[in-house]
Amino acid sequence: MTSHLHHEYFVDVRDDVTLCVETFGDREDTPVLLVCGLGAQLLTWPQGLCELMADAGHFVIRFDNRDVGKSTRLAGQSVPSPHALTDKIKEGIDIQVPYLLKDMADDAALVLDHFGIDSAHVLGCSMGGMIAQDFAIHHANRTRSLTSIMSTTSRPGLPPPRQHALAALLIPPATSPDEVLGRAMLVMRTIGSTEEHFDEEMVSELALEAFDRADSCPDAFARQFAAILASGSRREALMELKVKALVLHGSADPLIPVECGEDTADAIAGSEYVVVEGMGHDLPRKFWAQYMDAFQRVWAKGERQYRWRRDFGRAA
Three-state SS for 279? Predict the structure, then answer.
């Protein structure tokens, strides 16, 4: 694997929102846009995996969503705690939120604008998969392919997170390096891949790097959580998609159960559905080769469709 220099940018996507963006590879190569999950810094798309994508001939873009990492925190726009929000939803009470997942998808489109990119292969994990779905729905002409990983359509009636997994996710953020390692191990051993696939070294490295890079903000996490709850189901809109799509899910995911991946694949006509045995709610190195094989299949299909549309103005 080639070691790629990567670059950091700060991109103004709105008057009040600046996103931290990093890139790998040659800007002339085929663009790939990586979208992160709930409360997750861009580091959760591991550098080694980004470099594999760049080695395969892609210009790789990963970024901190609004309200996380080095991107703008929308301080002053408070929402109830995740527990209180969940209770309100169960009771059928409308919730007012600072932004929706669609707004975060629009942020991603503006990141592409910054680089003068008309369209990209869009991949998202967890909440990032939801944002990627919204990107494909609202920016279909800018989506060369969609890859939704460990994510969901948010259709009512789908299996909810396992209680122990949601409880782990909502553990308060760490305040010291020792604490951050303990919390990371507890959370990832609860929601991550099975023991034979668990990547303890990577979990430790990413946890410490994230702690050094930016602080965690419970209010910001709550705003992203609120955006998920308030955005509702995307299933009907996904049924109208005409883009090439891959849905990838772990068989052992307790946070977003595998049935949610099945529902996403069922909603998107012609999508490829890949279940990774033993994978939980993480991206351990042991699965990277399998991921890359699946990514490259959908990228090849998406490129053929993109070129056909560009040259002949119609879908392949």
Answer: coil
Stretch 267-279: mean pLDDT, rounded? Answer: 98
Query: What b/e sequence results for 88-100 when a residue is b if at least 16 CB atoms lie within 10 Å of its CB, and e otherwise?
Result: eeeeeeeeebbbb
Nearest to 193 by CA among 133, 253, 233, 109: 253
Question: Quick one: fold of 6-160+219-312?
Answer: Rossmann fold (3.40.50)
Look at residues 27, 250, 264, 254 and name the one whose alpha carbon lies nearest to residue 132: 264
H or E, element range at 130: helix 127-138
pLDDT digits (tens, 9 = 90+) for 73-97: 998 887 877 778 778 877 878 778 9
Over residues 212-268, the pLDDT tens digits come to 999 888 889 999 999 999 999 999 999 999 999 999 999 999 999 999 999 999 999
Question: Which residues have C-beta within 8 Å of that of residue 253, sequence separation ≥ 6?
Answer: 150, 191, 261, 279, 280, 281
The reply to whether the predicted model has a pTM over 0.90 is: yes
- Please name the residues in contact with 50: beta carbons below 8 A apart, sequence gap of 6 or more: 4, 6, 24, 34, 60, 62
Distance CA 42, CA 21 (A): 8
